[in-house]
Amino acid sequence: MGEGSLGSLSAVAAVGCAGAAVWLLGGRHFGARRARLLFAGGGAVGAGPPGRDRILGELARLRGRLGPEWWAPVAGVVLAVLGASVLPVFAGAVGVPLLRRARLARDARREQERRADAVIALCGALAGEVRAGRQPGGALLCAARDSGGLGDAQAAVLAAARFGGDVPGALAAAARQPGAEGLRGLAACWRVAVDQGAGLAAGLDRLDGALRAERDQRADLRAQLSGARATAVMLAGLPALGLLLGTAMGADPLRVLLHTGAGLGCLVIGGLLEGAGLWWALRIVRAAEAA
């Protein structure tokens, strides 16, 4: 590498070290200072200047608000400095909404799984309350508060149970929440128990067993597909590994890709093929999970 490349690498390393120091100061020392204030018993506690505390507090709040997708423009800036081109900056800016969409979809799937687990816990708790001798309405009130399986519709369902309303209808409406589909089975058990006098606890036990079996089946399928997903992600990272190897061998691949016509063409075509391949592989995995 030339002196310019070494200077760029030194500048990037300095910026990274400074960012890491600010990150650590904004989190670790800020939490330690709060602990000292908590256990000081009202006495004087040594602290830094007010301006420094305010800056560190703002940095800590900013770190909590920003998602991991904002590392894309940071990586773009680093590549722009190393490759002496503004194209990586634009690529990093374009990657922010795409990565944010992927993060939100992942968070939605986790919330859906958490709500499904809460519905299973609700069915089990409700069956236990009914067996203990409580009336269905009172049992639902206790079980819902302990499990939180009704989600955002908890107020409407509990109001129907408390004042003699349409509990199965309220449960069916609550089942429209992602991950709360098991509440449809609970509504059916409730309707059968009230209209035909069938045992509510026995129906809840069967529903709880069915929901647990379905959850275990999804977990098993997800475990079987984890290898395919990891392979797709690993293949997506191979171009970055190729750039690092080319740089280590002195080929300067960033200059070729960003400052020559053939390199730009290869970069555009390769990026499109990379994105299409990753999308197709993840689509196959998600289709298998949905099936």
Strand content: under 5%
The geometry reads as: elongated
Kindly state the mean pLDDT as a whole number?
78
Q: Give unreliable regions as ranges.
A: 1-15, 21-35, 40-48
Helix percent reads: over 70%
Rg, Å, rounded: 28 Å
Structural class estimated from helices and strands: mainly alpha
Order of helices and strands: HHHHHHHHHHHH
Main sheet properties: none
Query: How many runs of DSSP E, i.e. beta strands?
Result: 0
What count of helical segments does DSSP give?
A: 12
Oligomer: single chain
Distance between the termini: 52 Å
Keywords: Cell membrane, Coiled coil, Membrane, Transmembrane, Transmembrane helix
Membrane topology: Multi-pass membrane protein
Protein name: Type II secretion system F family protein
Subcellular location: Cell membrane
Protein described:
The chain has 291 residues and is an all-alpha fold. 82% of the residues lie in helices and 0% in strands. The chain has twelve helices and no strands. Helix 3 packs antiparallel against helix 4 and helix 9 (200-236) runs antiparallel to helix 12 (261-290). The radius of gyration is 28 Å and the shape is elongated. 18% of the residues are buried. The model is unreliable at 1-15, 21-35 and 40-48 (pLDDT under 50).
